[in-house]
Design a protein that fits this description.
The chain is built from ten helices and no strands. By secondary structure, it is mostly helical. Helix 2 crosses helix 4 and helix 7 packs across helix 9. It starts with a helix and ends with a helix. The model has no long low-confidence stretch (mean pLDDT 81).
Length: 171
């Protein structure tokens, strides 16, 4: 493009830029989007300036703004329709193999009665009464053994919820 054509294009933008920006804003409803639309339209008009400059270039640029705005709105609508479901990130406690090994090793290190209480209460999801009946002890003993075992597990797991961990390891 020649220097005269560049000057002619610059004069057009200076004279009609505000009006075109208003059209872009009204078609998009967003100031940032309007600026992008106008920039895109002016770029396309500049590439075809030798052809566009003889007629009134403003309707041509307006049409680019409107068509680009419609295209972008369609693209956004399609992206809302297309399922972009990404599964939620799994909790590191549920899938961390090393943590599972730590939990299993800690369970194995518990005294047999505490380990049995933990397994029956949280792994098998039995009530305190059912656990007491199976172990042949009182519900109070089940509660105290569970409390001691959970304290040891929490210490080994760094204070995390050991009840939830046991259920997750089992799943």
């Amino acid at each position: 493009m020649s220097s005269a054509e560049d000057d002619e294009f610059a004069a057009f933008v200076a004279a009609r830029g505000t009006s075109l920006l208003r059209v872009a804003y009204l078609t998009s409803g967003n100031e940032g989007e309007a600026e992008d639309l106008l920039q895109t339209a002016l770029e396309r008009a500049y590439r075809n300036w030798d052809r566009v400059r003889y007629d009134n270039p403003e309707p041509y640029v307006r049409r680019i703004i409107v068509n680009t705005s419609i295209d972008r709105a369609r693209r956004r609508a399609i992206l809302r329709i297309i399922p972009m479901h990404t599964p939620p990130e799994p909790s590191p406690y549920e899938t961390d193999v090393d943590l599972r090994h730590v939990l299993m090793d800690t369970l194995r290190a518990l005294p047999p009665r505490q380990r049995a209480v933990i397994v029956l209460r949280y792994w098998e999801d039995l009530s305190e009464a059912q656990t007491a009946e199976i172990l042949g002890c009182s519900a109070g003993t089940v509660k105290s053994q569970a409390s001691k075992a959970l304290a040891r597990l929490r210490t080994a797991l760094g204070g995390r919820s050991s009840e939830g961990m046991i259920r997750n390891v089992h799943a």
